[in-house]
Amino acid sequence: MTTQEEKALRAKEKPEFSQTLEPTKPGPAFVPAVDIFETDSGITLIADMPGVKAEDLDIDLREDVLTLSGAVLPPEEPAEQEVFREYNTGTYFRQFSLSEVIDQEKIDAQLRDGILRLTLPKMEKATPRKIKVSAG
User: Fold this and answer.
1) Which stretches are tagged as biased composition: Basic and acidic residues (predicted)?
2) Choosing a second label site near 6 at 20 to 30 A (CA), which of 51, 65, 66, 67?
């Protein structure tokens, strides 16, 4: 195997969360990779949270701060013994400050195959629109 092939097969490391506070949960905390897209009608946030199940995902919104946190539990069954592991378990954590143009009542979240998709619609008054001019 060439060096280039080895690089292509290397697992992507999850960036670990640098904690400035004392942790209350054991284990590492990771920062999920996020893509954010904006349209005239809203913002879409896509977060990579592999291994997180919907029941282990918490999305909290208070005082204009959106907090994503989710736990990745070990995949093994009770009878299995660990031989080799590249898949780290721990907790995902990331926060976002929302602007006043987001309609916080209409935020929608979907989790599928470890990808969290948040739809954050803009308020009606923030949506660009054309004003029709009447002659008269």
Assistant:
1) 1-16
2) 51
